Amino acid sequence: MPRPRLVGMKIGFKTSQTNVDWPTLAATWELADERPILDSGWLFDHFVALGEGGGGSHEAFTMLAALAARTTRLQLGHLVLSNTYRHPALTAKSAATVDHIAPGRFVLGLGAGWHEGEHAMYGLPLPPIGERITMLESAVRVIRALWRSPAGVSLDAPPYELRAAVCDPPPVTPGGPPIWLGTQGMRRGLGIVARLADGWNHTGEPETFEPKRDALLRHCEAARRDPSEIEISAQVFPRGGPATQREIALGYGRAGATHLILVTDAAAGPDGLERLIREVVQPLRDELG
Fold first, then answer.
1. CATH 3.20.20.30 describes domain 10-288
2. Could you state, in order of their start, the residue ranges of all structural domains in the chain?
3. What pTM does this model have?
4. How far apart are CA 261 and CA 42, in angstroms?
């Protein structure tokens, strides 16, 4: 496996945009943009709050575009967009637009989709997982084809089909923004990452990271892909307090992650972000050099 790259590790934050008002979220991200100790900021893609208590959630692409316009430095994106919520042609157009708002800073995070309740709520089809993985691979092909052929492209990528489709204006970033996939499947999903993606985002229990990392490396070898070309990120949830979050983050770094994403409560606002920086991010920087 590649030598863990602890020095130069990127550290970002994620504020899921649920049960929070726009002024609070905007102020939090503006503060983060002023703090170079943080490299990136992320949202999720859900229509309702997850977990107990429920609540509302702002729409993901609209909110990120607004935050992109209020920041100047942070890398930003979604971890991850559900491919089943939008046709990939729409995703390509929305992503190209955000790339104009935040040139060179936007990352397109994409996953196969999973939330049964949201799909049922809005009458959205949720095919079996095997079909969703096929759709995810086809979506990446559709998105890249649109970004790279602004004059028009025809493509059969079942279940999607393009006929002289255009993405005009094209992204500012040559070839389009990086694409990170949030798929966790060791057999098919990580194979798609190895062949087609610029990054992989791990979410789940920490003990599942190393087996998935090893599977990704095997897929890279089979695809003759240099694994160093793939940014490996891991979401670190605030379970057990700051010390636990720090230790889990360090474990990911030692196991080969190159970008740590620290999840924090959006409703805690700028004060909550300051606590995250003081209690988790700064100690991690001190430890990682």
1. yes
2. 10-288
3. 0.95
4. 8
